[in-house]
Design brief:
heterodimer; A: two-stranded antiparallel ribbon; 2 strands; B: alpha/beta; D-Maltodextrin-Binding Protein, domain 2; four-stranded mixed beta sheet; disordered N terminus
Chain lengths: ~325, ~450
């Protein structure tokens, strides 16, 4: 099949490697054939080395450790699938999966609408938009420990600002991190991460051609109709990225703020899967068992992400 | 073929990097240049370090020796004390260099186990007496000290907590006990007597609640705070050593009456509103703040709060300590036992400088009075009375106790510590009954320890 002809204007301005272009440019020898073949690999070697050392190698070692009983004091003992069998018989493991899924769903339903709403407002706002973007993004760049301490102070049932305000209306101490631990955790996480998702959605919105909005307005569509019929469907890809990040985040980076705020408690109420894994390794010193959790967790994330990608890609929307 | 050779090169380069990174750290002594002359002390020697050094004149080793020492990072006066002590020790022991690394307590175990697994373990390191010490001893990562250190330096009752199966593995450096602290003015103001019996304690809860005060400050964020109550209660109802037996399922079970009764007593405190509302959202800082700012009348905590009170409490704040009250029908004498813990130093089996390490620990033991005075800690050596009257009071409690009961989270097998803390926190939140506590713990022992 012939390649599509390139308009003359573009051929003048862009260095596109068409056969015609190559023949027009002077050939320049930059070294031997072997040198030119090897040099790209040499350039990517440092990146590959980092990837291998800090991601692939630990994953391989982790897989190996998952077949052992190991407390990091004595040499590991090979026990085959023993850890995996124990894991699937552990009711706390299933409880952790449930809590993690709850956390992921709650994060989605709090962060995504908020991020979309604010992104939509900022896309309509011409003045001060950058300032608000920066302000909303700030929690994302703060240390999670600092964020955890900040929210711990806010959740203090006696001396926290919300408690003092509610106290004025006669509301007694509320056990935010006790009875409502998971909801409180989701709220704190939403505060940290919604800015990032807002920026993603805002980028998606600015990429939508303005002609589509113009034609919608010519058809007398209301703002709501424009949002739901034009903006939202065309944000499918950025929504997919946000959803995948939030769901996979529930299984990975959620550990930071959760550990600082609740340590998985009270009574496993916020024991997300990464907390369950961390405790198995560093509280119970069962590194083999913990590695087995991580292997299962990776498979679980892969399946979930696969389902999400499939769901978002069911139908293709084109205008 | 060409692709294959390129891939081979890339793989080779990666493996070379991996091998380079996996190479074990070489022993530091080889990298330290031999001093030609003994370095002159940079400042006047530390009084106690000088005493210890002159008491044990050490000949310079043939080759320079570097001892890696790991312990908890103690922000505050301890850091300055260590710098001075090490400097003085090095000046008294030419050829020996001490590299001390202070690590935050919460990261310590993780870093230590990683170091052990990667064969980069320090020569001397900090461990907790109890199951932690036993773990290290059983795994042969620490060496017996019976013939290495001068045992007479330390209090016999304290150094004995560092024995495992009759062998000494460590030296104590940081003993502490957890009494009931009370706000003297508040108890006076509300005519509440210092609780000596269980009935007194419940009565105090009732009176203080009626006065709109929190009887006992407590936070469940870290969970150890509520564990201390159970540790005390079970010691009195089940007897010394019984918790250890239940924890391994040999000779006792958590479903036995004394253990369930102890949980029921803890629930009694919860039901009588001895603890604050919203207890699940409070951590130890919030708990201490409630005590210092006059919201709460009592609190169980360690001797470190003496220093906190000096910096955080109002100038007219006055506190004192008392023993945990005696329970009805307890095992006689157990009401004198105190709950607490001891941390201390051990020597790695992988060190090639065990003698030098032991000498350093001896010197450290001889400087204990200065160390404990500087840091506001209880002494580990006999015949020393702390300068602080409150610390002196705690030292008397320890002296009069039959036993210093190491707290449950440091005594139980690591595999069930989380269950222990979680279930006790569950009682504190009213989500676990005493019977459920017994059953859950017995199940945890069966599935995680006995197995």
């Amino acid at each position: 099949m012939d390649p599509k002809p390139i308009p003359p204007m573009l051929r003048k301005t862009l260095p596109i490697n068409t056969p015609a272009d190559r023949s027009e440019r002077p050939r320049r020898k930059v070294g031997s054939y072997a040198y030119r073949r090897w040099i790209p690999y040499l350039f990517i070697t440092p990146g590959l080395a980092v990837l291998f050392l800090f991601y692939i190698l630990p994953a391989i070692v982790g897989l190996g450790v998952s077949f052992t009983r190991w407390d990091a004091l004595r040499p590991p003992v090979f026990i085959g699938l023993g850890n995996f069998i124990a894991l699937f018989q552990d009711p706390n493991f299933y409880h952790s999966i449930l809590v993690t899924v709850e956390y992921a769903v709650l994060s989605l339903v709090t962060q995504l609408p908020l991020a979309l709403f604010l992104a939509y407002l900022l896309s309509q706002q011409k003045r001060g938009s950058k300032v608000f973007q920066a302000v909303f993004f700030i929690p994302q760049i703060l240390s999670l420990v600092a964020v955890g301490v900040l929210w711990s102070l806010l959740y203090d049932p006696f001396n926290g600002p919300p408690a003092r305000i509610l106290g004025l209306f006669g509301v007694g101490p509320i056990d935010w991190l006790g009875k409502y631990a998971l909801l409180s955790l989701v709220l704190a996480s939403a505060w940290v991460y919604f800015g990032f998702h807002m920026v993603l959605q805002l980028a998606g919105m600015t990429a939508i051609p303005s002609e589509l909005y113009d034609s919608a307005r010519l058809d007398t569509a209301s703002s709501l109709q424009v949002f739901f019929r034009v903006t939202l469907p065309l944000l499918r890809e950025t929504l997919l990225i946000s959803t995948v990040l939030m769901v996979s985040g529930a299984f990975s980076y959620s550990i930071g703020i959760t550990w600082v705020l609740t340590r998985g408690g009270p009574l496993h109420a916020t024991e997300l899967l990464p907390i369950f894994m961390y405790k198995a390794a560093f509280s119970n010193h069962q590194f083999g068992y913990s590695s087995a959790v991580s292997i299962v967790m990776v498979i679980f994330i892969a399946v979930l992400v696969g389902i999400i990608v499939w769901w978002f890609g069911r139908e293709r929307i084109e205008y | 073929m060409k692709h294959a050779s390129v891939l081979c090169f890339v793989v080779f380069a990666l493996f070379a990097l991996v091998l380079a990174s996996c190479a074990p750290a070489t022993a530091t002594p080889t990298t330290v240049p031999a001093p030609t002359t003994a370095p002159a002390p940079p400042h006047p020697p530390h009084p106690l370090a000088a005493t210890s050094a002159s008491a044990n004149p050490t000949t310079a080793p043939a080759n320079p020796v570097t001892l890696e020492v790991w312990d908890y990072q103690d922000p505050g006066p301890a850091e300055g004390w260590w710098t001075q002590f090490i400097s003085d020790y090095e000046s008294q022991h030419p050829g020996i260099t001490i590299n001390r690394t202070g690590i935050p307590e919460k990261d310590y175990d993780q870093k230590l186990r990683t170091a052990i697994a990667s064969n980069t373990v320090p020569d001397i390191f900090f461990v907790i007496a109890g199951s932690n010490l036993a773990d290290f001893a059983d795994a042969k990562t620490i060496q017996p000290l019976d013939n290495l250190v001068d045992k007479s330096i330390w209090s016999p009752s304290l150094i004995s907590t560092f024995t495992h199966q009759g062998v000494l593995y460590g030296i104590p450096s940081y003993p502490y006990m957890l009494p009931i602290w009370y706000n003297v003015s508040m108890l006076d103001q509300y005519k509440v007597q210092v609780p000596k019996t269980w009935g007194d304690l419940l009565g105090a809860c009732k009176s203080l609640r009626a006065a709109g005060k929190i009887p006992i400050a407590l936070g469940l964020q870290e969970r150890w705070e509520i564990m201390i109550y159970y540790d005390y209660i079970v010691e009195q109802l089940a007897g010394p050593g019984m918790l250890d037996k239940a924890a391994i399922g040999q000779g006792a079970s958590f479903t036995d009456k004394p253990f369930v009764d102890a949980a029921a007593r803890l629930k009694e405190l919860v039901d009588n509103k001895c603890f604050p509302d919203g207890v699940g959202s409070l951590d130890q800082n919030a708990m201490a703040a409630q005590f210092f700012n006059g919201q709460a009348a009592m609190m169980i905590n360690g001797p470190w709060i003496i220093g906190m009170a000096q910096s955080s409490a109002p100038a007219d704040f006055k506190m004192s300590a008392t023993l945990f009250p005696a329970l009805p029908n307890n095992i006689p004498g157990t009401e004198k036992d105190v709950s607490g813990g001891i941390d201390g130093f051990v020597i790695s089996t992988r060190t090639s400088h065990a003698k030098e390490a032991a000498d350093f620990l001896n010197a450290f033991g001889k400087a204990d009075q200065s160390y404990s005075d500087t840091n506001g800690q209880l002494p580990s050596v006999p015949g020393v009375t702390p300068k602080d009257p409150l610390l002196a009071q705690l030292a008397t409690y320890i002296e009069n106790a039959n036993i210093l009961v190491v707290s449950g989270d440091r005594r139980l097998p690591a595999a069930i510590v989380d269950d222990y803390l979680n279930n006790l926190a569950g009682i504190g939140l009213g989500q676990v009954t005493p019977e459920q506590f017994g059953k859950n713990m017995a199940d945890a022992v069966n599935s995680k320890v006995k197995k």
